[in-house]
Amino acid sequence: MAAPDKFPLSPFVHKTAQKPPSKIRPVSMALGRSKYNHERESMTMSLIEEVNEKRREIRTDGYAMSVSEWMSLYENDEVDIHPEFQRFYRWDDIQKTNLIESILLGIPIPPVFVSQRSDGVWDVVDGLQRLSTIFQLVGILKDEDGNVEPQLRLSGTKYLPSLEGKMWEDPESPDSELPSELRLIIKRSKINVSIILKESDENAKYDLFQRLNTGGSSLSPQEVRNCLLVMINKEFYKWMLELSKFEAFQECVALSDRPLSESYDMELILRFMIFSLIEEEELAELKDVGVFVTEKMTEKASDPGFDFDMWRSIFESTFTKLRDEAGENSFKRYHVEKQKFLGGFLLSQFEVVAYGVAWNLHKGKHVEDVSQKISAIWSDERYTNWSGSGVTATRRLKRILPLGREIFDA
């Protein structure tokens, strides 16, 4: 027999415990669960609707094409590989030879992504170097000016050492030509193509290009933007390229070879146009600077009303002023104790000085004592506290951009 409870419940408590649970509480809980399930279903449906909507905006097709077909498209101007991109993509002859070796050995080649324009021509979104290498090998690749590039001369590889010195055609040395059997293998090899059809949203190819060419890409962020810019508005890209050659700008930024090779000068020009005249309300909403710069570039390059003359005037007057008064010290750190400028280019100083001077010149104000004001910012805690390591670009810009406008307001 079970032992009785040490402290038996009173009859009232026992009776209460035997009653069925109150109906009010289950109804309340049921209503809560119903509301939760309804919200969850709404969120799920919202996500599904978003996916379905975006899938409708992007229409694609795809199939395999022989190298010979790719060559025909290129020669008939039915595929645009954007020769301007060549300055950003850096494949050496070894990498090019490795691609040809892969084709000869039957190793699958990654697909080429293209976007179909309204005129039916394919814009190459990803696969430029693969196609360029093939076109250079067979002697049909053209540069930006429409001149045919020299044929690719192959190198020997681990598996095919006899490729050393081989070319597609070499009238002066027939022994250096690839055997006709190997040329047929190359021409008949297949490369898959994924096509964003012209019915897709206009921005789809730009988004795809950015996704495929960031992260593991060897391109710098600005080189990716440059490629996007060529696709969006080639004339805008050429205009920016002209600005980058402005002598006063080059003297002031005084960049070394490496940042120049990665188009950092173009990034500085782009940032100058985006942030020099930005309203503080918009600056306050700034989040990821890199994303913001890319979005603003796309917006400006797509704007038919963009004022090229105004921006050229602001750019040239700003850097002429800086060159005349500060020269190569415009964006260098000022050592307060040693009382001299040291080191190389500093982006945070560019943001204070270039944007501040441009803002005030555009407002019709006289900007004076530039060199002294540049050195003085290194004694100003409002700059030094927000320009050091550990401060994100987003937080820094919100603080020092208004400061630059104040400093250079005569």
Describe the model:
This protein has helices spanning 11-18, 24-57, 67-75, 93-105, 128-138, 180-188, 204-212, 221-232, 234-244, 247-253, 257-261, 264-275, 280-284, 289-301, 308-325, 347-362, 370-376, 381-387, 393-407, and strands at residues 60-66, 79-80, 112-116, 122-126, 190-196, 333-335, 340-342. Helix content is 54%, strand content 8%. The protein has three domains: 15-53; 60-218, no CATH class; 234-407, no CATH class. The protein has 19 helices and seven strands. With 410 residues, the chain is of the alpha/beta class. The longest helix is centred in the N-terminal third of the chain and has 34 residues, at 24-57. α9 packs across α12. It starts with 10 loop residues before the first helix and ends with a helix. A hairpin with a 4-residue loop joins β6 and β7.
Q: Per the principal axes of the C-alpha atoms, what is the gross shape?
A: globular
The number of domains: 3
Return Rg in Å: 32 Å
* First-residue to last-residue Cα separation: 100 Å
Relative strand content: 5-15%
- Mean pLDDT score, rounded? 85
DSSP, total strands: 7
Spatial order of strands in the largest sheet? 1-5-3-4-2
Number of helices: 19
Helix content: 40-55%
* Run of helices and strands: HHEHEHEEHHEHHHHHHHHHEEHHHH
Class by SSE composition: alpha/beta
Q: Main β-sheet: number of strands, strand sense, barrel status? A: 5 strands, mixed
